């Protein structure tokens, strides 16, 4: 069954002269984990607010769970806003249960559910504590739990990972995976590519209000050529003449390397075609007597895709 | 509707948990107790005060001593009258007045009318002992015995080494250490305790040539620089004026008696004349026949609305402040977004209005209950008077007026303050927007005494028709039976304004809560009002 829980068609939103969201269309199939990526100010939060019908788009249409307005189906949606905050004076369990009851859950069921969630995700000891006594990260976990306590079909998390330590990031990843396993659809926005890489089935990349990429992770990786990283002394011209080499860029690594390279050593990044065989490149290096200190063949990371697409100033990118 | 109740229930529960709420609830009974309990306690524990009298003229010492004695008798008389009222046989003093012994009756009446004549009569007829025998048959059997108040002003001897016959300047110079509080007087302990040092409260110095300073209508007025002319009263305490006032009265009466004698008028006749008086009866034309006399209860009925106006004001201020800060908290915390993903802005707004409104009503009910409990459990004549007031309250239509205008005022101002709260991100920003509203709220408070005195005058009528003032001003006028046109007309205008304010602030709220950044300019607010959703 491949129905879509969410469809945006040519949605735009302007604030005065500033266009926050520019003609964005995408669809999210049921049961997927969908990453929503983009640099700061790209329009992620505005898009999410329009999806929730907190804001109205200036043009375009939104279909969410078969309705035109999220307000009609708000009990089936869970939402974590970008800026996190809770009622400071309330008890942890009470706040989770309160938000669940606002989503139509029965009071007693909501309370039991709150305790269940707190136990599952390691906050059992804090159930009776007041929110103001929690650390920022713990408060954020509580807020995520309060957003999903009512078991919504569609979960929308705006920057859920920011401000969490690595351990809690993992707990959150587990929560997202749990929800996906239960058949819930999860949309989350983030800057941190590793999370998207690990979690997402599909992703949407936006910059300056425009859609730059929409597809699976594998599609995204295919956007930029594969790379071979070489560190050596002297000339690498013989390699550049090989078939399947698209080009080479010399990089200065002073900033990224813990130990500076020894004198005369240069760092190259070769872009190669998909069919090119890195084995042959290595072989040619030996044949040409190039003294290698490093040879690296890597898949491009989402980070690279991100920098590639957004950094080289955003035009809409078309793919096969 | 279910969402509104959920939100209201949370707002209520959270508000009730705050310290401010409990302070608000407890403050009122605490003030009640403080006023009625400590007041009487303080009066009883007033310190004994020592004064020194130096009469160089040799003419006026008896008059000053008499003045101080009289001052003491005045206190006894006052307390005795209070004691009699408190311990009469029948519960309702107004009925007993008719049956009571005429002399006691007159005594009470005289004390009410102004004490000069009553005091003379009191002293003439033998003072306390006589009054007690007179009153005893009419007191309850279980009445406690009357406790005579202590003497407050006691004469102390001149300290050793001070020459009473020296010039006025020299005496003051010698007495300076005592006057400034640097040295203490040696006095006999009046109540048997070992008190042997006491501050000098006042030095009364009557110079030898004091008669030269007597002011007569024919004489030229004193030059301005002769400020120390006549009798000199030296005291550091500038607020307790009972002693100098009593001395002045008494000495003047002595001087006048001397004048009468000098001009050949019989002083006794003058006294007779001075005690002659014609009472003014205050009558209320709106009361039933036979009940026209203006009683304390009537006066209370007239002034009770002022109390209610104040109550509305205090409770309203508390509620709207909480509403405002709470909205701003949600806004700055971004809780609002989560809420708006669950409920509509209108539901949120109504839930808040309801929840905070209920907590305001809780406060008022708690105040009224504590007032009631106070009346029931506090023995004494003040509480009895309060009980009378309560009867007035319950029998009049002030309570329904109060309930209506409280709710109306709350809906009106809460709507406005919610809209303000929705536009601001911090309390600081809100304060500048709140200022004009607070100023407006202060106006009915500033005019409430005036309106109570002239409840159907032009100011009262004009203010009644301004919706922002209607709840206060109409409450203010409630006891004066305002014209029907005013009652119905202003109510219609008020209800329409409430509907309008809630509708408009709903619009502002909806857009304001998601705003970030600076509070909007006026133009932007107008744009918000015009927007359709």
Folded structure, characterized:
- The complex is a heterodimer of chains A (320) and B (533).
- With 320 residues, chain A is α/β, with parallel strands linked by helices.
- Chain A has two domains: 4-219, Rossmann fold; 225-299, Alpha-Beta Plaits (2-Layer Sandwich).
- Helix content of chain A is 31%, strand content 29%.
- Chain A has helices spanning 44-51, 92-102, 107-120, 136-148, 166-181, 193-199, 217-223, 237-240, 278-287, 302-311, and strands spanning 4-15, 18-29, 33-37, 59-64, 77-80, 154-158, 185-190, 202-207, 210-216, 226-233, 245-251, 265-272, 292-298.
- Chain A has a six-stranded mixed beta sheet with strand order 5-6-7-3-8-9, with helices on both faces.
- In chain A, helix 2 (92-102) packs across helix 3 and helix 2 runs parallel beside helix 4.
- The model of chain A is unreliable at 313-320 (pLDDT under 50).
- With 533 residues, chain B is mainly alpha-helical.
- Chain B folds into two domains: 2-33 and 296-530, no CATH class; 48-188 and 196-213 and 227-274, no CATH class.
- In chain B, 65% of the residues lie in helices and 5% in strands.
- Chain B has 20 helices and six strands.
- In chain B, the strands form two sheets. In chain B, strands 2-1-5-6 form a four-stranded mixed beta sheet, with helices on both faces. A two-stranded antiparallel sheet of chain B has the order 3-4.
- The longest helix of chain B has 38 residues, at 296-333.
- Chain B starts with a helix and ends with a helix.
- The chains are: A alpha/beta (320), B mainly alpha (533).
- Chains A and B meet through strand 5, helix 2 and helix 4 of A and helix 1, helix 11 and helix 12 of B.
Q: For the terminal residues of chain A, how far apart are their CA atoms? A: 25 Å
CATH level-4 homologous superfamily of the largest domain in chain A = P-loop containing nucleotide triphosphate hydrolases
Shape summary of chain A: elongated
Helix content of chain A: 25-40%
Structure class of chain B? mainly alpha
Average per-residue pLDDT of chain B, rounded, comes to 78
- Report the portion of residues of chain B in β strands: under 5%
CATH architecture of the largest domain in chain A: 3-Layer(aba) Sandwich
Number of self-contained structural domains of chain A: 2
Within the largest sheet of chain B, what's the order of strands? 2-1-5-6
Beta strands of chain B, count: 6
Greatest interface and its residue counts? A-B, 29 and 21 residues
Structural class of chain A: alpha/beta
Main β-sheet of chain A: number of strands, strand sense, barrel status?
A: 6 strands, mixed
Helix count of chain A, per DSSP? Answer: 10
Percent of residues of chain B in helical segments?
Answer: 55-70%
- How do the helices and strands follow one another from N- to C-terminus of chain A? EEEHEEHHHEHEHEEHEHEEHEH
CATH class of the largest domain in chain A: Alpha Beta
How many helices of chain B? The count is 20
State the end-to-end CA separation of chain B.
20 Å
């Amino acid at each position: 069954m491949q129905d879509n829980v969410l469809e945006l068609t040519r949605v735009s939103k302007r604030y005065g002269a500033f266009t926050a969201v520019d003609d964005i269309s995408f669809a999210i199939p049921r049961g997927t984990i969908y990453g929503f990526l983009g640099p700061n100010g790209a329009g992620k939060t505005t898009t999410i607010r329009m999806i929730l019908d907190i804001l109205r788009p200036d043009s375009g249409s939104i279909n969410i769970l078969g309705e035109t307005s999220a307000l009609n189906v708000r009990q089936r949606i869970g939402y974590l806003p970008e800026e996190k905050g809770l009622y400071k004076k309330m008890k942890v369990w009470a706040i989770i249960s309160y938000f669940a009851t606002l989503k139509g859950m029965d009071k007693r069921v909501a309370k039991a559910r709150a305790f269940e969630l707190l136990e599952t995700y390691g906050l059992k000891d804090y159930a009776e504590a007041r929110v103001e006594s929690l650390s920022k990260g713990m408060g954020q976990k509580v807020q995520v739990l309060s957003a999903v306590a009512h078991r919504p079909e569609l979960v929308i998390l705006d920057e859920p990972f920011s401000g969490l330590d690595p351990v809690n990031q993992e707990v959150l990843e587990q929560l997202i995976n749990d929800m996906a396993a239960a058949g819930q659809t999860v949309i989350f926005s983030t800057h941190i590519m590793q999370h998207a890489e690990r979690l997402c089935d599909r992703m949407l990349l936006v910059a300056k209000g425009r859609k730059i990429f929409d597809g699976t992770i594998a599609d995204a990786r295919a956007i930029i050529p594969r790379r071979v990283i070489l560190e050596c002394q002297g000339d690498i011209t013989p390699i550049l003449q090989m078939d399947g080499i698209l080009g080479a860029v010399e990089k200065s690594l002073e900033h990224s390397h813990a130990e500076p390279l020894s004198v005369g050593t240069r760092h190259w990044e070769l872009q190669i075609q998909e069919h090119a065989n890195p084995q042959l490149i290595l072989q040619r290096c030996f044949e040409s007597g190039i003294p290698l200190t490093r040879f690296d063949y890597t898949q491009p990371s989402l980070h690279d895709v991100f920098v590639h697409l957004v950094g080289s100033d955003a035009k809409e990118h078309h793919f096969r | 509707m279910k969402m509104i109740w959920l939100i209201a229930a949370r707002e209520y529960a959270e508000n009730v948990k705050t310290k401010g709420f409990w302070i608000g609830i407890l403050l009122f009974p605490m003030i009640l107790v403080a006023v009625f309990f400590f007041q009487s306690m303080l009066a009883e524990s007033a310190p004994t005060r020592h004064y020194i009298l130096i009469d160089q003229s040799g003419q006026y010492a008896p008059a000053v001593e008499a003045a101080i004695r009289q001052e003491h008798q005045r206190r006894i008389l006052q307390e005795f009258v209070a004691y009699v009222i408190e311990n009469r046989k029948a519960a309702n003093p107004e009925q007993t007045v008719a049956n009571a012994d005429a002399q006691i009756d007159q005594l009470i009446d005289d004390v009410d009318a102004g004490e000069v004549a009553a005091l003379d009569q009191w002293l003439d007829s033998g003072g306390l002992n006589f009054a007690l025998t007179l009153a005893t048959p009419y007191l309850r059997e279980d009445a406690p015995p009357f406790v005579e108040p202590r003497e407050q002003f006691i004469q102390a001897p001149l300290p050793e080494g001070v020459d009473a016959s020296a010039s006025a300047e020299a005496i003051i110079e010698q007495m300076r250490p005592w006057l400034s509080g640097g040295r203490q007087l040696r006095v006999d302990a009046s109540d048997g305790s070992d008190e042997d040092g006491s501050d000098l409260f006042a030095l009364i110095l009557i110079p030898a040539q004091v008669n030269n300073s007597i002011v007569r209508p024919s004489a030229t007025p004193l030059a301005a620089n002769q400020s120390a002319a006549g009798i000199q009263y030296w005291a550091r305490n500038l607020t307790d004026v009972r002693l100098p006032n009593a001395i002045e009265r008494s000495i003047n009466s002595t001087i006048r008696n001397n004048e009468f004698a000098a001009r050949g008028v019989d002083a006794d006749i003058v006294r007779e004349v001075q005690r002659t008086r014609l009472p003014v009866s205050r009558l209320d034309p709106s009361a039933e026949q036979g009940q026209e006399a203006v009683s304390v209860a009537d006066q209370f009925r007239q002034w009770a609305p002022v109390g209610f106006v104040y109550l509305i004001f205090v409770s309203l201020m508390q509620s709207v402040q909480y509403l405002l800060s709470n909205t701003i908290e949600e806004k700055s915390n971004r809780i609002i977004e989560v809420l708006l993903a669950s409920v509509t802005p209108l539901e949120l707004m109504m839930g808040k209005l309801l929840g905070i409104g209920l907590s305001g009503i809780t406060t008022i009910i708690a105040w009224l209950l504590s007032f009631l409990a106070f009346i029931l459990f506090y023995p004494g004549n003040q509480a009895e008077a309060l009980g009378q007031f309560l009867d007035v309250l319950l029998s009049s239509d002030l309570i329904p007026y109060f309930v209506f205008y409280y709710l109306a005022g709350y809906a009106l101002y809460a709507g406005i303050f919610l809209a303000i709260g929705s536009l601001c991100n911090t309390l600081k920003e809100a304060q500048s927007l709140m200022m004009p509203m607070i100023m407006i709220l202060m106006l009915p408070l500033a005019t409430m005494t005036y309106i109570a005195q002239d409840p159907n005058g032009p100011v009262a009528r004009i203010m009644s028709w301004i919706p922002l003032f209607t709840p206060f001003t109409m409450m203010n006028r409630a006891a004066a039976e305002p014209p029907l046109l005013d009652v119905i007309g202003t109510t219609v205008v008020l209800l329409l304004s409430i509907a309008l304010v809630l509708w408009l602030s709903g619009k502002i709220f909806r857009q304001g809560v998601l705003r970030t950044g600076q509070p909007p300019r006026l133009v932007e607010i107008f744009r918000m009002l015009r927007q359709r959703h």
